[in-house]
Amino acid sequence: MNDKKDNRAHVIVIGGTSGLGLALALAHQQLGWQVSVVGHNQAKIDCINAQHPDITTHHCDLTDFTQRQTLLDTLSASQFQRLIYSAGSYFNERLQQLDKTTSTQMLAINLQAFEHVFMWASAQLMQQVEANTGVGSIKPSLVCIASIAGIIDYPYSSLYAKSKRAMIATASAYRCALAPYDIQVTCIASGYIDTQALRDLNGGDASHKPFIISTQTAVRYTMQALADDVELAVFPRSMRYITRALNQLPKPVLNWLIRKRLDKSL
């Protein structure tokens, strides 16, 4: 961990050592923010320390409650204006059977750690607002990276989709609760993003995924959503229209379509 203190606006990115999380961390760094990232892969952390020595790094296994609490105790020592929860665990339940280990990991990272971190972060930001210790015109904010998979509600959705749907609902509740404090809460629900993780899941090439966008395009959409104080940012536009149309279908029709698509036996 390389910890530095200064008077710049500070963003913490949980799950910020790769993919969209790292890209958002670097985008904030380019804007002059102080940046802290949290990850579990030591090799990725070492790489960031070597290539971006100005970024503060923290190692944490988010599935471990004790490590999470130790991390939050450490982060409590410094003030921040924005926290982005970008950590996530995915498993293709269409192709493989969900086992105990994978189920526990997905639940821990996609829901339990997210709720733990958001509860802590909201308390920190509320205290800062009450103490009037903000940085210039920077509005305090909480951000979570969900998925377009959580937009559609149907009985046969995967654990991943259900957890992302719960994340979307939780973020919406926090937005209502923190409105009196003028704390922004934004949830990002994107379609496919061409990250290394997605390529690894698809044999090294994810170009066949529908409406896939580059990481930098996702960063641009996300930063614009933050600037516009959007509650739920769904992108790309084509996927937003598709999910909107699907959600307007009668439930029996939607359930039949999804069930057929997922090859669920009747």
Summarize the structure.
By secondary structure, the protein is α/β, with parallel strands linked by helices. The protein is 47% helix and 13% strand.
Helices and strands in order, then pairings?
Elements: E1 10-14, H1 19-30, E2 34-39, H2 42-51, E3 56-59, H3 65-75, E4 82-85, H4 100-131, E5 141-145, H5 159-178, E6 184-190, H6 196-201, H7 215-227, E7 232-235, H8 237-247, H9 251-261
Parallel strand pairs: 1-2, 1-4, 2-3, 4-5, 5-6, 6-7
Helix pairs in contact: 1-7, 4-5
3D architecture notes:
By secondary structure, the chain is an alpha/beta fold. It has one domain (10-261): Rossmann fold (3-Layer(aba) Sandwich), CATH 3.40.50. It has nine helices and seven strands, in the order βαβαβαβαβαβααβαα. Strands 3-2-1-4-5-6-7 form a seven-stranded parallel sheet, sandwiched between helices. Strand 5 (141-145), helix 5 (159-178) and strand 6 form a beta-alpha-beta unit. Helix 1 packs across helix 7 (215-227) and helix 4 packs parallel to helix 5. The protein starts with 9 loop residues before the first strand and ends in a 5-residue tail after the last helix. The mean pLDDT is 87.
Features:
266 residues; alpha/beta; Rossmann fold; seven-stranded parallel β-sheet; 9 helices; 7 strands; 47% helix; 13% strand; globular
**Shape assignment:** globular
CATH 2nd-level architecture: 3-Layer(aba) Sandwich
Largest sheet, strands/sense/barrel: 7 strands, parallel
Helix and strand succession? EHEHEHEHEHEHHEHH
Distance between the termini: 53 Å
Number of DSSP strand runs: 7
Percent helix, as a range, is: 40-55%
Question: How many helical elements?
Answer: 9
Uncertain residue ranges: none
How many separate domains?
Answer: 1
Major beta sheet, strand line-up: 3-2-1-4-5-6-7
CATH class assignment: Alpha Beta
Task: Say what the CATH topology is.
Answer: Rossmann fold
Overall pLDDT score: 87
Tell me the Rg in angstroms.
19 Å
